[in-house]
Amino acid sequence: VEAHRRRENKPSSRRAVSEQYRMEQFVGTSEPIRRVLDFVAKVADCDSTVLIQGESGTGKELVARMLHFNSETKDRPLVPVNCGAIPENLLESELFGHEKGAFTGAAHTRIGRFEAAHGGTIFLDEIGELSLALQVKLLRVLQERSFERVGGSRTIDVDVRVVAATNQDLELAVQQKRFREDLYYRLNVIPVTIPPLRERRSDIPQLVNHFLKRMMRGRRASTASCSPEALSCLMDYHWPGNIRELENIIERLVVLSRSGTIEVADLPERLQRRPVSADPAGAQFIPFSDQGV
User: Fold this and answer.
1) Is 146 helix (H, G, I), strand (E, B) or coil?
2) SS3 191
């Protein structure tokens, strides 16, 4: 992950990634997604803090990257931090860096993610997983745009845009005293909620085509389409894992399918069960096109 982040922050890599996250590259034309794209277009160039909310797998990181790569600072660093994946005893050092000798094993001074993101954007994913102690320190950074490294006394100023994301109900977390109210209001300057896939079912044919195209590139596999019946099953499913679950299933089908077309029999059993669809119309497969990446 660290090596990928360094590569992505090289100027040539950033230009290539910027092309990948152009607005017209976004897959989906449903009304909920048009509202999200309209939001990105309106706020990408401002430096206000953005709070992205939505269920797991809905594409919160994708929206964060679109915000950055459609802004005037797209050639500056974008530094992601998964606050739920880094052990709590290491997260402070990851965020703010540490001085040599600050703790056992700190053989060298190391800058943190906030310093690395100077002039660009820091993306704090799973912000609801922060401990109360770290919430206090993050609040200070948001208020004063400065901090000290672990074990240091020198105040470091940073110019960085903060984009945070969560799949939790932070208002409920505030009521339950698991999340600081003052930090919540600091983060919730410009909020946006990413719709779950079940609320944008009309985008499923485009998403299926997108994933099929991407997974077929460079692979010796014959799966290139999806039957209308199988697509109807995909559109009827409730997708608790959202787009990430759809992507994983399409990858599995591409690997395991024996023919050039995904049929109902190829689908996992849970997708073959046909509940009453919330949107029974429109289960029509869209052939491959070069639009949407």
Assistant:
1) strand
2) strand
Indicate the pairing of strand 121-125 with strand 78-82: parallel
Percentage helix, strand, coil, to 5, in the chain?
45, 15, 40
Q: How far apart are CA 68 and CA 224, in angstroms?
A: 33
Token representation of residue 127: 């912000």
Which residues are registered as beta bridge partners of 122?
79, 162
237 contacts 263 by C-beta, under 8 angstroms: no
**CA separation for the pair 86, 45 (Å, rounded):** 30
DSSP 204-241: HHHHHHHHHHHHHTT------EE-HHHHHHHHHS--TT
Could you tell me where the beta strands, DSSP code E, fall in the chain? 50-53, 78-82, 121-125, 146-148, 155-157, 161-166, 190-193, 225-226, 261-262
Name residue, tokens 């010796």: 220
Task: Kindly report the length of the chain.
Answer: 293
Find the angle CA(235)-CA(236)-CA(241) to the nearest 5 degrees.
75
- Residue partners of 13: CB distance under 8 A and separation at least 6: 7
d(CA 162, CA 113): 12
**pLDDT tens readout for residues 216-266:** 776 655 667 899 999 999 999 999 999 999 999 998 988 887 778 899 999
SS3 10: coil
pLDDT tens by residue, 155-176 = 999 999 999 999 999 999 999 9
Gap between the Cα atoms of 19 and 8, Å rounded: 13
Token pair recorded at residue 243: 């787009």
